[in-house]
């Protein structure tokens, strides 16, 4: 269940318009943007906005589990407002990250639990290849 803007508070982190806008922007896109892209999108609306403010607010949203930080070894972190478990496809040519609409296989967690004696809380799987757009480009 997604939290509403009114529920975006945690400890000493008061709600603010910039954080609300960052969350709304992330929820409106499926592109898994970087902090820099978010900054560029909001700079017109918030002329005094700094990149550090964007990054700090993203950190708060990650800590509150309202967004996920995606680190696939690229230079820049990407962010995802789709927080329910799901898999990603990463294009090796254009580096686009695509949400896959396939069921998450909870059986994998049970398999690891049973075979290793460990308790798995969650898992992440990424698929790498060439996306549809790049495969049809000359």
List keywords for this structure.
138 residues, alpha+beta, Arc Repressor Mutant, subunit A, Dna Ligase, domain 1, 2 domains, 14% strand, flat
Describe this structure in words.
With 138 residues, the protein is of the alpha+beta class. It has 2 domains: 5-80, Arc Repressor Mutant, subunit A, CATH 1.10.10.10; 87-136, Dna Ligase, domain 1 (2-Layer Sandwich). 35% of the residues lie in helices and 14% in strands. The protein has 5 helices and 5 strands. The strands form 2 sheets. A 3-stranded mixed sheet has the order 4-3-5, with no helix packed on it. A hairpin with a 5-residue loop joins strand 3 (87-91) and strand 4 (97-100). Helix 1 packs across helix 3 (51-63) and helix 2 (35-42) packs across helix 3. The longest helix has 13 residues, at 51-63.
Summary of the model, kept short:
35% of the residues lie in helices and 14% in strands.
Assess the beta-strand content as a share of residues: 5-15%
Q: Give the neighbour order of strands across the main sheet.
A: 4-3-5
Would you state the CATH class of the largest domain?
A: Mainly Alpha
Low-confidence stretches: none
Oligomerization: single chain
Total tally of structural domains: 2
Q: What can be said about the biggest beta sheet?
A: 3 strands, mixed
Alpha carbon gap, first and last residue: 42 Å
Order of helices and strands: HHHEEEEHEH
Question: Mean pLDDT, rounded to whole units?
Answer: 88
CATH topology call of the largest domain? Arc Repressor Mutant, subunit A
Helix share, percent: 25-40%
SS content category: alpha+beta
